[in-house]
Amino acid sequence: MPSEAALEALPKVFRLADETPYVLVSSIAAILCAAPDRINEVLLLSVDCEVRQKQSDGSEAYGLRWWPAKGADPMVKWIVPSMVDVVVDAIAKIRKRTDHARNVARWYEENPNQVYLSTEFEYLRGQEYLKNIEVGRVLFGKDVDRSIINLWYRNKNIKTATIGGVRCYRFVDIERNVLSMLPLHAPWLNKDLGLKYSDALFTVCRNDLAADKATWPGVVATVSINQVNNRLGPKTGSHHETIFSRYGFTEPDGSPIKVTTHQFRHYLNTLAQAGGLSQLDVAKWSGRKDIRENATYDHVSADELVLKIRGALGDDSQMFGPLANLPKRIVIHRDEFARLKVPTAHTTEFGVCIHDYTMAPCQLHADCLNCSEQVCVKGDEVRSARIRDELVTARENLEAAKQAHADGYFGASRWVDHHELTVKRLAQLCALLDDPSIPHGAVIQLSNLPVPSRIEQAKVARAALTHRPEPSPSAIISTETMRNLMLAMEKNDG
């Protein structure tokens, strides 16, 4: 995820940026900090992507209309109120810096076989030959040094003529070369989405994001993912100036700040997970079709898990199970009890384990579903689905154990007891997860069933050995039968 130094520097860069490359990239970063977009989705926003909608309470909701990249339906992604002003400012900055390029794209839609010229230099269109200075006006929209024109000319197959002792270039040759630089599929930026360059928010002029190259005002392009990443933190060995280095921001140790566009998505997803947003809502907010993909973006730390569970102790609206009532019955402050009862926490396949491994190893060999130190969080759809699948499997295992016990298999009764307990706990847990009266984000702990110590477990195992039941007749193979089977096998081998 983004470093603390990066998150502190970004708002400052956003306010300081005054050149097109840094304005565009810092504004993109602002959008990525407000909604968990993928960078390719941001770069496909239309110029009219903003949506405002009146709410029932009279307030106004603000969002961006966008196309998800991995198959989800087109949607409006609403921006949290605290970030609305930032995103509005970012969109305005981007739109201002890219208006000219969209106008050029619109001009080419109406004049696909002619080179764009500014009104100031439109008079050049009627000339057959152009001098160096005039070529610069066609290519770069301004007077440029002769060396730039000569450098460009050497890489092109353009015939020249000498008129009055001056080298000149044919206008049609210059025009043909400029038109060849336009995007291959223009006027469409993305035909499947119906998005033209003239309607795209991130339509720019060629080299707008290059600090060491002249901009081509008559050639449209779009901002690329590499251009954004290079300004956020280029690969080792690259000499691109970042939005951080441009304004003197570094990590505390003086090293360069580096961020990738996808880290913002991980950051916002983690904030949503830590805040108790349901997995379904996290998936919808992030534009996912499958809520199972949320797990990849869940970076909630152990400390955050501990604080969440501690905060729920003793709260009837947030904690369900034995831990909800204990703080009410003891002569100790609730917060102090919470620190003693839940010193640590870590995620498991089905929820969160609050066992303190500094005191003792796991005595159930990771049999989390039969452990009183396992708690679940309602709204975690990924782990809830695993719990429901486990209930189906546990019921099947219970039937198989009962059949084995009926057939007289030694030890089968212990498996029957184990699976009965597992089914009971899973059914109880699923009932709580499906209970509409329990809010999303609530912490659930099942009945405080005693966890036997290792000595008790050993005593039970020894008792089973000393009271070994007689096998049923159907489970006994006589010596005579065994001898006949062995003779038949030897005969077949021979």
Describe the structure.
The protein has 494 residues and is an alpha+beta fold. It has three domains: 4-111 and 187-268, hpI Integrase, Chain A (Orthogonal Bundle); 119-179, no CATH class; 301-466, no CATH class. Helices cover 44% and strands 11% of the residues. It has 17 helices and 15 strands. The protein has a five-stranded mixed β-sheet with strand order 11-15-14-13-12, with helices on both faces. A three-stranded antiparallel β-sheet has the order 1-2-3, covered by helices on one side. Strand 7 and strand 8 (195-196) form a beta hairpin. Helix 1 (4-16) packs across helix 2. The longest helix has 30 residues, at 81-110. It is elongated. The protein starts with a helix and ends with a helix. Mean pLDDT is 76; it is low at 273-304 and 327-332. This is Integrase. It comes from Alcaligenes ammonioxydans. Keywords: DNA recombination.
Name its key features.
5-stranded mixed beta sheet; 17 helices; hpI Integrase, Chain A; 3-stranded antiparallel beta sheet; single chain; 44% helix; 494 residues; alpha+beta
Topology of this protein?
Elements: H1 4-16, H2 20-34, H3 39-42, E1 50-54, E2 60-66, E3 75-78, H4 81-110, E4 129-130, H5 132-140, H6 146-154, E5 160-163, E6 166-170, H7 171-179, E7 188-190, E8 195-196, E9 203-206, E10 216-222, H8 225-232, H9 261-274, H10 279-286, H11 302-312, E11 319-320, H12 322-325, H13 334-341, E12 346-347, E13 352-353, E14 374-377, H14 381-406, H15 412-433, E15 443-445, H16 454-466, H17 479-493
Parallel strand pairs: 11-15
Antiparallel strand pairs: 1-2, 2-3, 4-6, 5-6, 7-8, 9-10, 12-13, 13-14, 14-15
Helix pairs in contact: 1-2, 2-4, 2-9, 5-6, 14-15
